[in-house]
Amino acid sequence: MEADFFQTMVLTFKLASVTTLILLLIGIPLAAYLAYGTVRFKSVVETIVSMPLVLPPSVLGFYLLLAFSPASALGEFLTEQGIRLAFSFEGLVIGSVLFSLPFMVHPIQSALSGVPRSVFEASYTLGKSKLTTMTRVVLPMIRSGLISGTVLAFAHTVGEFGVILMIGGNIPGETRVASIAIYDEVESLNYAMAHQYALTLFAVTFVILLLVYTLNKKSLGGIR
Amino acid sequence: MILINITKHLNTAEGPLEAVFDLSIGSGEFLTLFGPSGAGKTTLMRCIAGLETPDTGRIEVAGETWFDSDRKINLPPQKRSVGFVFQDYALFPTMSVRENLLFAAETAEQKKGVDELIALVELENLAARRPDTLSGGQKQRVALARALVRRPKILLLDEPLSALDPAMRAKLQNELSLIHERMGVSTLLVSHDIAETVRLSERLAAVERGRIVRVCPPMEFFSSQTLSGKLQLVGEVLKIEEDFPVCVVTLLVGSSIVRTVTAAEEASRLTIGEHAIISTKAFNPILLPIHEPKETP
User: Are B264 and B246 in contact (CB under 8 A)?
Assistant: First the structure.
């Protein structure tokens, strides 16, 4: 029982960590595109990024499940490559990345919009490339936006239920995460175990958030 | 020698404008672009820095072509040797004063020059401070020093002193003039402050509606607007009140408020916010007495 518990908790935070890392990598360029891009497809991209905010998780999960199933073109192609996404950890990561995308992109996007254009231009006239400007000047300036995005995306992934239930199911060690486990334990009237999961999630997320906000406030001290 | 001959389509508050700028700046010269806002002064500076692209024409700096629409040459800002001082200073808030300057430095020599520049703008005691903790005048000095780190061929100052109070303005004008003497860098200043223009620049280029209408020494420019007066004051029109049969005009001259009476017809030629000349003859004043502003307790 205890081994099950730890396995589930480790899986939960592994999923959240991997998802958050991937989101950071794709979230920054995407947010930069949305904050500064002038291309006409911008509204479409913006809409797609924001969709998970209003869409029921089961809708996203349902379509992902259809896409992953060997009956679909994508699923068939993946099966031929020996990749199975439905009811697998990799599938969960893809679902979570899509589902938590706005929570990472929005804070970064709004922080980027707050950086004056003249700061970029000053850096360019000082001979710095766009990449150098981004990494040395802009990213340090939007630190708090990056932290908010990371924390929100992480917390949101930990608390995710609908998408995971649809595409992952309840396979111990593979797709059984804490939120699913709680539901499962309650269904089988095992309230003590459900309580153990719930309280752990509650405590861990509280501590993470508290730590991040305290550190963030401290290090920002002089600025802002 | 800096040669500029460009055209650019502008969308101003008063509608579209085909700007044509033709200007040459001598090596080490201090030239001011003077004119009302929306005339295209800032656009010209941004075109020189490569932050905006002219529609047609050429920009050549010290024998190097920075822009040529015929030969399809358009160097990015990074490749142009410019120092740009922005109106909002554009300092990097996460870096200290020294780090702001060091960020700009590329060669070992430029890195060594950083401390010298910090001393030149009298910021030795503040070198470790973050920009947010500095006053407007101090931020301006950091921005100026940072723009000079790379020893640019041209220094572009976009209304750098407009946000400062008059006393700080005067002090920084002095410093700017000293720095220009010391470093000998060709400098282009955007300003609509007459005192600043006269004090700092060797030549003035008057810009109106996207055209450079006149280039001459600043004193010549301002005194050629002379009537046949003996005493002249230039001020900004703040208020025009009709008080039949005359008009009471309130102007800002230097830092004092001046009220004067003029004929309604003369007043109709004045616009609030624009500059006007008060002229008086020695023994036959045209204008009625001026009320000094009251001392505030």
Answer: yes
Give A134 to chain B, closest Cα distance, Å: 12
Q: Are strands B186-191 and B275-280 parallel, antiparallel or unpaired?
A: unpaired
Beta-strand runs (E) in B48-146: 56-61, 64-68, 73-74, 82-85
What ipTM is given for this predicted complex?
A: 0.78
Q: Spell out the long-range contacts of B218-222 with Cβ–Cβ below 8 A and sequence spacing 24 or more.
A: B218/B32, B218/B34, B221/B34, B222/B194, B222/B198
| CA–CA dist A36, B69 (Å, integer) | 26
Q: At which residue do the structure tokens 């959240």 appear?
A: A16
Q: Helices B97-104 and B108-120, interaxial angle, to 10°?
A: 140
Q: Of the CATH numbers 1.20.1440.230, 1.10.260.40, 3.40.50.300, 3.40.30.10, which one belongs to the domain with range B2-223?
A: 3.40.50.300
A66 part of a folded domain: yes
Kindly state the helix (H) or strand (E) to which residue A9 belongs, with its residue range. helix A2-36
Domain contains A135: no
Give CA angle at A39 (A38, A42), nearest 5°.
95
CATH number of B231-280: 2.40.50
- With tokens 């700080």, the residue in question is B168
- pTM score: 0.78
- pLDDT tens digit string along B131-157? 999 998 899 999 999 999 999 999 999
Place of tokens 């030969």: B71
pLDDT in tens, B199-221: 899 999 999 889 999 999 888 88
Domains of chain B, by residue range, sit at 2-223, 231-280
Q: In the numeric block, which tokens belong to residue B144?
A: 């100026």
Domain assignment present for A138: no
Residues in B whose CB is inside 8 Å of some CB of A read 49-51, 76-80, 82-84, 86-88, 90-94, 103-104, 106, 130, 132-133, 146-147, 149-150
